[in-house]
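A quick aside before the break. I want you to see a complete sequence-to-structure record at least once, exactly as it would be stored in a machine-readable document. Don't worry about memorizing anything.
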Amino acid sequence: QIFINNEWYDAVSKKTFPTVNPSTGEVICQVAEGDKEDVDRAVKAARAAFQLGSPWRRMDASDRGRLLNRLADLIERDRTYLAALETLDNGKPYIISYLVDLGMVLKCLRYFAGWADKYHGKTIPIDGDFFSYTRHEPVGVCGQIIPWNFPLLMQAWKLGPALATGNVVVMKVAEQTPLTALYVANLIKEAGFPPGVVNIIPGFGPTAGAAVASHMDVDKVAFTGSTEVGHLIQVAAGSSNLKRVTLELGGKSPNIIMSDADMDWAVEQAHFALFFNQGQCCCAGSRTFVQEDVYDEFVERSITRAKSRVVGNPFDSQTEQGPQVDETQFKKILGYIKSGKEEGAKLLCGGGVAADRGYFIQPTVFGDVQDSMTIAKEEIFGPVMQILKFKTIEEVIGRANNSKYGLAAAVFTKDLDKANYLSQALHVGTVWVNCYNVFGAQSPFGGYKMSGSGR
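That is the input. The structure line, written in C-alpha cells, reads:
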C-alpha cells in the first residue's frame, strides 16, 4: 500500500504491480502502484504538515533530532528483518545488507540527528543604524526519488538531512525494490513523526516519479539514479515551478593503478571497486587503468580473483555476489558483454549466465579495452571489469577525464606526490587514494558533469 499522512491506502486507481525475488524470478507480493493522483494526495498531506503552527513546525529542533535518533533505534531493533527483506527484494548478500547497508543507515540518521539543533544564522555588521541577520529555514515540501541499488541507504541519505532541518517529504521509491522503504514507513510512524511529515509512494518513474518532479507544490526534488532520467527530472523541475534540484547520477569512474602500487592490495581493491553490490554502484571503478609496467601481472591476478568470487544464494554466508536486481538489468549487462566481444576487447573470464534461474551473471573481466569501445564509455552497472593500459601520468589524466561522467576516481600508488597530483587533476567529485568505496555521513558525495549536481 501507499503511506500518506501516517496511514496506509490503496492506490487511487486500485492498480498494483509485482515485486520479484531476483534470485528466483518469482513474485514476492503485489504492491500498490501510485501515480499522479496519489502524489497529489501525498503533497497535500505534506503541505498541511508544513503549515505554520503545525505540530512539526512548532517542534523544537532538538526534538527533531530526538525523533531521528528514535527512528535509528527502531531500525536497529529490526535490523535482522530489514536486512533479510532487503536481500529478498534486491538480491544483495544478506551479510552485506546487515553489516554494510544497515550499518551506514544507522550512522547516517544519527549523524543528521546530531545536526538538527546546530544549524544557525549570522548577524551581519552592515553600514548604518540597522540590524541585519540571517536565519536558516526549511525549504518545504521535498520530493525525493530513490533508486533500487541501495534502497535502505538511499532512503536514509534523503530523509536524514531533510527531516533534521525541518522539511517534509514525499518519497517515490523504486518499483524494483519497494519493500524495505515501506517497512521503514511503519517505523517512522512508530517513532512519533507527525502525520504528513513523511509520505512514501511506490510506483513507476514515468508516472509517479514524473508527477513528483513536475508538481507545482513541491519545493525541491532530489533524485538518485540514471543520467537519462536525471535529464528528465531537471527539465520537469524547470518547466514547472523552478524547484530546486539535486541530482546524483551515473558514473564511469577511473581507477588508476600506478606501477609502484602495492600489487596485492591494488588487485583486491580494484576487484572490490567494480564487483561490490554486483557491480550496481554509480561510483563503481568501472575503468581500471593500469600502468604498462605492471599490466600483465595485474591482469593475471585480477582473473584469478574474479574466478574465485563466490556467486550464489544471497542468504548463504559464503556468497560474495548475488543476482542482478531484475531481468531488465540482467539482459542489459549481457548485451554489454556481447558488445565488448564484438568490438574487440579480450574476454578473459566469465561472460555468461551463472545459474539456471534468477538473474545471476558470472564475474567478467575484459582486457585490451580501448577508450572508444562501448564498454569503456557507457555505464554497465554490472559485474563486468574493464582493464585499460597506460604509459604516463599525463596520458592517464587525459583519458580518465575524457568522459561525460565525473562522479568518482581512485589512485593506487606509494608516492604521495603522485597521489596528490592525480587527485587535483581528476575532474570528479570524490577521489580515493589507496582505497575504494569509503563513505562517511560526515563527507559530501556527488559528481561533476553528467554525474549530477549538488552535494
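Two observations worth writing down. The first strand starts at residue 2 and ends at 4. The first helix runs from residue 36 to 49. We'll return to this after the break.
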